[in-house]
Task: structure prediction
Amino acid sequence: MKILGLETSSRRLSVALWLDGRLLERGGDYPNAGSEYVLPWAVELLAEAGMALGDLDGIGVGAGPGGFVGLRLACGIAQGLAFGLDLPVVGVSTLEALALAAGGARVLACTDARMNEVYVAAYEIHDGMPETIMAPGVFPPERVPVPPGSGWLGAGEGFSVYGERLHEALGTTLTAVSADVWPTAAAVARLALPRLARGEGLDPALAAPRYVRDKVALTTAERLARGGVR
Result:
């Protein structure tokens, strides 16, 4: 199968092209911008592979959780590319993509959700595919649920931003931490592959972000209650 993957949920933007086992990828670190690169990257990858958009079997998109603007960017591009060609779209959890990119057997994926909270989920990797052990949720770092058992790899920028608070909550559950791991378009494409093969792709109009948390700001009282300032 030939699949285009898009991942823009964090500061690390990336685009990947899966070609029957061969993988091409573009990406970069853009903390405050970068939207102008995503579509050109996709065009470059298709040109490098000698393909047209119509040769694709589907598009995988990092649907969330993550930055609101970034999620809308990826979903919007996926919809725009897929509509005219009637291509199916698969929304992939960004935490699932992070877990796959981390490379561990048991991964606690954790990203910064801002507002003194983190997005977190736990996965076991079997035959190269993540199995959900703890579904994605949003929590203050000290209230993150502890996944069952031990031997978990903590992965994601949540551990660089809230490392001490997360370690206090998780105790000896973690055996290692890889904070500099991000969701990637390559992982998104790999995760989209079996779902597209099973016919689980969606109509482009249904490709929507999965925010996990819809609230984008705290009241003054809420900020003070979490130790913030006015």
